[in-house]
Design goal:
This protein is mainly alpha-helical. It folds into two domains: 1-61; 69-141, Arc Repressor Mutant, subunit A (Orthogonal Bundle), CATH 1.10.10.10. The chain has helices spanning 2-5, 14-27, 29-34, 37-61, 69-80, 88-95, 99-111, 133-153, 160-180; strands at residues 85-87, 115-120, 123-131. It has a three-stranded antiparallel beta sheet. It is elongated. Residues 1-10 have low confidence and may be disordered.
């Protein structure tokens, strides 16, 4: 697995060598046969950066009422919704979460007074989730903290041309995934 273990020539470090080695661990000799070190650095670097940014964003949110990224996603969607209300199933679908996962998250947010469950007036089987005034305040503070984090940890390290390139690449890959029918975000 020589190709996967070598860091890329453009700024690779010992840390990157350990990260890119994961490609070989996950995909075996396929990596040696088909990939350059840059392939491994691109794939594993993307995964590692995503993992670190998500973990660190969770850390930024911790002081904000023990709110995680998924909880903030719920509060943010509710803050943007008409009457700050959505069906619980719509929230789960929008976030790609199972019924049990969205229910547990809403339970947690409800116990802190950030949301309230209400029967859906048009469908007795459905439950609406409504953002409370407290939840709106918490969401606003948390959104500000995450925005500052993303600006500092992600965008400030990139040029405008690099941002455009990333946007183009990720858009194309996500559109390709949607066209292939292999899922979407």
């Amino acid at each position: 697995m020589e190709a996967a273990r070598e860091p890329a020539d453009h700024g690779g470090r010992d840390v990157m060598a350990a990260i890119t080695a994961r490609a070989g661990y996950m995909m075996g000799t396929n990596v040696d046969r088909a990939w350059t070190p840059e392939h491994a650095a691109a794939w594993e670097g993307f995964l590692e950066l995503s993992r670190r940014l998500r973990r660190d964003a969770e850390g930024v949110l911790d002081p904000h009422a023990e709110l995680g990224v998924s909880g903030l996603g719920i509060l943010g969607r509710l803050a943007s919704a008409e009457r700050r209300t959505l069906r619980q199933t719509e929230l789960g679908d929008a976030m790609g979460l199972s019924v049990s996962r969205i229910s547990r998250l809403v339970d947690s947010l409800e116990s802190r007074g950030y949301v309230a469950r209400r029967p859906c007036p048009g469908d007795a089987r459905a439950i609406n989730v409504e953002l409370t005034d407290t939840g709106l305040e918490v969401a606003g503070r948390a959104q500000d903290a995450v925005f500052e984090f993303v600006q500092g940890r992600f965008f400030e390290g990139l040029s405008e041309a690099e941002i455009r390139t990333l946007a183009t690449v990720f858009t194309r890959l996500l559109e390709q995934e949607d066209v292939d029918g292999s899922g979407g975000c």
